[in-house]
Amino acid sequence: MILSALLTSVGINLGLCFLFFTLYSILRKQPGNVTVYGPRLIQQGGESQQTNAFNLERLLPTAGWVKRALQPTNDDILSNLGLDALVFIRVFVFCIRVFSFASVVGIFILLPVNYMGTEFEEFFDLPKKSLDSFSISNVNDGSNKLWIHFSAIYIFTAVVCYLLYYEHKYLSSKRIDHFYSSKPQPHEFTVLVSGVPLVPGNSISETVESFFREYHSSTYLSHVVVHRTDKLKALMNDAEKVYKKLIRVKSGSMSLQKSMRDGFLGMFGKKVDVVEHYEKKLEKLEDDMRLKQSLLAGEEVPAAFVSFRSRHGAAIASNIQQGIDPTEWLTEPAPEPQDVHWPFFTASFVRRWISNVVVFVAFVALIILYFIPVVLVQGLANLHQLETWFPFLKSILNIKVVSQVITGYLPSLIYQLSVMIVPPIMLLLSSMQGYISHSQIEKSACIKLLVFTVWNSFFAIVLSGSALYRVNVFLEPKNIPRVLAAAVPAQASFFISYVVTSGWTGLSSEIFRLVPLLWNFVMKLFGKEDDKDFEVPSTPFCQEIPTLLFFGLLGTTYFFLSPLILPFLLVYFCLGYVIYRNQLLNVYAAKYETGGKFWPIVHSSTIFSLVLMHVIAVGIFGLKELPLASSLTIPLPILTILFSIYCQRRFLANFKSFPTECLVNKDKADEREQNMSEFYAKLVVAYRDPAVSASRNARGISPEDPPLLRSDQG
């Protein structure tokens, strides 16, 4: 790709970014409830007094929202939004620091060395230059200038490791501070017990109570046995749908006829009043639910949530083997009540095992399936290959503007559109694996999405673009550095365009929440609205963190290969830092807290990116006939892995559980609190399955009544 094609892509995306920012700035200043994309937008002083009278100032874009997004400190974010939000913001901070340093070194040192690598070239007619002129490929084989790249790799690795260590230390201390400052939470006092043995003559509940009163008599408080509620939840879902229809009919928001037929598809049977029909249907469903609830006592599952009087007591129970048989009385820390994923409590061991096998096969199949858009993207990026596939397009492709748009913008756009459906698929696959909490599902989906993105968006594109016929070389590990060294630099132009298309435009559409906004508009257009309660969107950590880490991998691997990508990445991380602070403050709301458990994924991905850069460097220096530099690079991945092991032992244990020192100190502080008896009373019922809650009476229902049997009640 020549530089002019890249400039075309950058220009298109800059225009889109400017359009989104302008629209957002204008809409933030409008009166009324036009900010449908931001349900948590808080009106700042005086704005609530605005009237609907015309005001030219409202139509002028401003950057006031940027200032408001940057005002809250890290402590404000921690106290108001939680540790997960702080970790997410600190990932941006970490990337900005890393790539600020990388951009200075890359643009002012490595890029001039690359550009003048073959011979002295003047900086004239740059738009017609190939991007290879700015990469390490332009440096002569055996040139002493390659030692500058060698030194930059060592310095860059040291800086990244130092910054990673600093973030580990900072977030570990904030996690402890957040624990000390927070109020008592049910999951801190509760463990999940599974594999409860069946005792003849005793129910599961009686067995659990007897065991924990015997062996944890000083700390045991209460327990809640899990029940088999699959059929009851199906009835709940049906009742919820009927209730919403009834509310829309009574409130007049649903344009339906006053009468309908009660037969098949509403086309047969006798005519009945619509409101009366839905009320009777709702009453019947509630009667069925009450009957099912009365039978739940005999459908216990050998699992229970056991609560203790202290955090230390719960920690002891969750970390020590409870019974002689290690397959019985299995304990693990309980998730937050609203975080519990109930469906798989009733699944047998065989069903979970089969589900995991099916998920693995589906995941591999999805990776293989996405080779199709990868091949298409590479064909668009290569005009000669495209002319071979479609010879009748040769005359059109010879037009300069068309060829620049196709090679510079279209490939990354098509690939970005093709992977939009992948995050929901990963969440679906993870939900089938038997996890007992939504946060575990999201963490698993995050890891799957990261693996998918790294393989399909990096390795598959790199290899299919220039070395697909040599994939079998990977069967011999000693050839991996040489293969990557030959293939990776050739795809620098595509990844620069990908950062601009997927990164810049993606962030700009995120602040506007374009897809949900369009979906909301289409649903209103067809008269299909949900109930009047507006659901605040959940924070999409599992979707955004893999994207961040993938761009970090691109910047790390291309740091010394093609440093021209670094400024584009730095702009992306700076935009993301501002935009996601705004989104976390005004749009998203966390439904549960993981305690910063996404950070270990960031650590592992950063170490992998560094090691991948080192492996490519070994191959590059070998191809460039500088064997000494190649040999001296080999210790670098070893030192990086040793650093990773040290960080894991030093810091990552704190992200799994809290130390005894913290637990005991917090328990002692609770003893001085006056309202702990109130908390214990709530703790006893905190882990009841929402399906066993009492249903509401349908008679006399009105549009102001709260929704029936909310599934998020806990």
Brief descriptors of the model:
714 residues; mainly alpha; two-stranded antiparallel sheet; 6 strands; ion channel; membrane
Question: Quick gist of this model?
Answer:
Residues 5-167 form the CSC1/OSCA1-like N-terminal transmembrane domain. The protein is mainly alpha-helical and 714 residues long.
SS class: mainly alpha
Q: Would you tell me the overall average pLDDT?
A: 77
- Count of strand segments: 6
Give the overall form: globular
* Main sheet properties: 4 strands, antiparallel
Radius of gyration, in Å, reads 29 Å
Determine the N-to-C terminus distance: 56 Å
What is the helix content?
A: 55-70%
- pLDDT < 50 stretches: 29-54, 56-60, 120-124, 465-471, 694-714
* Count of alpha/pi helices: 27
Overview of this protein structure:
It is a multi-pass membrane protein. It is found in: Membrane. Residues 357-621 form the CSC1/OSCA1-like 7TM region domain. This protein is mainly alpha-helical and 714 residues long. The chain has 2 domains: 3-182 and 352-623, no CATH class; 186-335 and 675-713, no CATH class. It has helices at 3-27, 64-70, 74-81, 83-115, 146-181, 204-215, 230-251, 274-294, 311-319, 349-369, 371-381, 383-389, 394-397, 400-408, 410-418, 422-431, 438-466, 480-487, 492-512, 514-525, 541-557, 565-586, 599-623, 627-633, 635-650, 660-671, 676-685, and strands at 190-194, 220-227, 259-261, 271-273, 300-308, 330-333. The chain has a 4-stranded antiparallel beta sheet, sandwiched between helices. Helix 4 (83-115) packs parallel to helix 21 (541-557), helix 17 runs parallel beside helix 21 and helix 21 (541-557) runs antiparallel to helix 22. It is globular. The two termini are 56 Å apart.
